[in-house]
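Tutorial handout. Part one gives the primary structure; part two gives the three-dimensional structure as tokens.
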Amino acid sequence: MSTWFSKLFSGQDAPDPRLNADQQRLLADWSRLPPPDLGRSHRQSRYVVVDVELGGLDTRTESLLAIGALAVTDGLIDFNDALRATLATDGPPPTEAEAGSDRPSAAMAPADALIALLRFAGKAPLVVYHAVFVAKRLERALSEHLRLDLPQPWLDLAWVMSDLFREVSEMDGRLDPWLDHFAIESIRRHDALSDAYDTARLLQIAIAKAARKGFDTPASLLELEKARRHMHQDG
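Part two.
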């Protein structure tokens, strides 16, 4: 938990003056949520798959344009358990193609969009494809706008898939080859919610294969991801 958040609830410091009373209340409610039981089976757990849209490829400088999140609960994707938040930016307005009818008409302030993500995710394990891209940008936004560090871990499906499917792990690490390999047809690539849906379908494949190999809980899947990542970094 961040220093600011610890001080807020210990009474040692005032809350961030940039946040209004409703935002502070929502953050307080989220902070009090209990952590999940990572020892339960995949079929008794809720994962939240997250993706983002940026103004470019540099996660350090590009604007965060949208956040998409989709829950995989008890092994199933619930299309009613989804979030898409478009963020207001200081950049140029979206083009006509970007502002299509399937996108929200009103953009949210970054703090509100991030709080919406926290409320949607709760304390569930967060799943991404390529944490360096998605997780790092979201962590920077949470620190910048809410002065907050997430307590729950990120599960990077790029490492998980390469471990579980070593016979096809010589791919270049991009998402598209995995989608092609499993014949997953994307609705709209590079849309935050659509990409989260693609990743959620890969997660379903991953947890089914992992369970057959004895990795039948979120905790064991996180350990598998950690081991695979460290092996690659040390190699």
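Part three, for discussion. The CA atoms of residues 68 and 84 lie 5 Å apart. The helical segments are 3-10, 21-31, 110-121, 134-146, 157-164, 175-181, 192-212, 218-234.
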